[in-house]
User: Fold Cellulase-like protein, putative from Bodo saltans.
Amino acid sequence: MCRVVLLVIALLFICNSVALPHHTLGTEPISVHPNTLRLVDEHFREVNFHGMNVVVKSFPWIPDLVNFNVETSFNAKDMETFQELGFNGIRLGTMWPGVEPERDQYNMTYLQSLKQLVTDAETYGIYSLLDMHQDVMSEKFCGEGVPLWAAIPANDSLFPWPMSPIYNASVSGIPTPEECALQSWSSYYFTQATGSAFQNLYDNNYGLRDSWANFWENVALTFADTGAAVLGYELMNEPWAGDAVANITLMLPGVADRVNLQKMWDVGAESIRSVDESHAIFFEGVTWDWVGVGFTDVPGGSKWRNKSVLSYHFYKPPDFSIEVQFAARADDMKRLQCGGFLTEAWVYDWAVLDKCDAVAQSWLLWEYKPFFGPKTGFSNSIWNSNGTLNVEYVSMLSRTYAKIVAGTTLVQNFNNVTKAYLLVFKGDKLVTTNTTKIYLNEAVHYPNGFDVVVSTSQGSDYVSWAHTARNHIDVQHNLAVIGENSTVTITVVPSA
Assistant:
């Protein structure tokens, strides 16, 4: 009970705290380091992102930007909360129905509203991954993702055959919420209607793939000038294999990636690169690629490897082992020579956060709030219904970590019991500035203060640290002395 009370007091401290520093990154978008395959800033320093998904799966397809609400907003108060908790990233739903509700009719008001959210978030040191989110493709199939006009199943597909009798017999062709609730939302992927509609998209039947590519071109044209504020463009969330009812081999790991998705991602990348060569493209395989993705190259080909990031998720099911999943993704990154990013996992999965620290991977968890309308796969929010923060989640998620590392991370670990933090990195000849930036939640984890010890393998004279602002310390080392065969060690522990 004492610990809970202490956490509540710590959270209340937010209201009376001195303003935190805002910007972390520079002006240029992130890239992929050519040797380590980690995400880096314009100075080749490693960058780590901790944050959450902000995805509105129904109209108006965007959070409330003005009025705070524990379920529907992402406004200044939300951004202040992110900043306080050390969250520096969001995966922002960039919804095709919001951009193109009618074919070839683009909603520039929606795009500009998204851009305003992105630019506002950057002032709080929060960077946005633009995600074309979908789950089961369309409201026609008890999901969401593409505009109604783009969800075209085979002529003989009656949803949800072969699972059960027809749902969408109404004029609108959209099942009722009561009908959709008869089965788990993810089971609707296995209907012929859903699979054949995905296949029509992948095969460019009715020009659907071209329309999807044009959607991305319009998004990229809108955000091309946003610099570091945008982490990149995620081509599609959790893409389905295609018409697996007609071709069951698509369910084999790697097959759908190779047969359907590789061409799709190349087409999308071509459209994006026609207007934006600076921002990274994030791409996914199907969610059951336990033995490795089936792609033979990154979207657009090898010249874009430094701007390509493999997006992946971890859930049980379909995943069954953290070690297997992360090892497979590490092999994928090495083979494709691209970066990697965990863009979804449960909010409450502590072990995943520790694993990301161990393998130097960023994370964006599912999800910040439930937002509007019916949900396909809502997890837990960090907000309680009474408008207070969930202290258990805050203690777990607001971790001590390095936002920026001026070298190559060898060890990063935060012990959420003892609150001890360790970072060890070696020098990198490509790094052009010497500042490493570490976030720590003083109120939650170090209410009685903290002690920092810094050293190098060349002696203590070549490194120093400073408490630059509340919840932040900077560590600077001598670039001329600390080379690729030398290390810097930083420890943070609670004061006795």
